[in-house]
Amino acid sequence: MQKPIELVVKGKTLRGMYHYPDGEGIYPTVILFHGFTGDKLEPHRIFLKLSRRLTAKGLAAIRFDFSGSGESDGDFEEMTFSSEVFEAQEILKFVSYLPTTDAERIGLVGLSMGGAVAAVIAGNNPQMIKALVLWSAAGIDTIAGIYHAKEEQGAFLQNEHGQIDIGGLWLNENFHADLANWNSYETLKTYQGPALILQGTGDQVIPPATAEQYQAALDGRASLIYIPDADHTFNRHSWEEQVLSETTKFLKNTLF
What is the distance of C-alpha 235 from the center of its chain? Predict the structure, then answer.
């Protein structure tokens, strides 16, 4: 079963989809956080596919568009890492209050920058989060590194407000400065639960070594699986299948 849901954060409506097993009940629930310029479907509908697999195993799943992305209110140029963390925290609160959520069994999945958001949320809410999955997770340092590399290449086109053209979307002029307020590796150390990290060795966006930094931050509480040759968003059926199967198995075993 699935149904659209909405959440208002700072006057903006975030639009999402709630997936849940057939029949009445209280379910372990997994929140999915999309990546930079992504949305609640993500490439080749991988978030939808994961949500359906989870419900088939008796878990619920919730996936929202952050503001300025997908179908949610707001404009992309208003987005910063801080704004997404704030919204993710509000999403966690919303999910924990749903009458169908088992608030003692909440998990997170984050892709790319959504992985950094998930890491921060897990670290800031160690008593609430019981399982964490990171897919091609960005670190704050890797996000900043990509920004600097493109800046040095002269790859940025800017408008009169200092906003940067990112594939037809304006990026907040304070986006880079805001990153200095965060350290996703350090924040994650507070999280004491189990984690699964999935990383493609052919990722051209996030260096595969970033996954090792997250694993080190978790001090032995995380399993790291490298997917040979896989790109940033697992754009091949065999890569996707491994990601979906490993994630579903981990969340079912951890949250039940």
Answer: 17
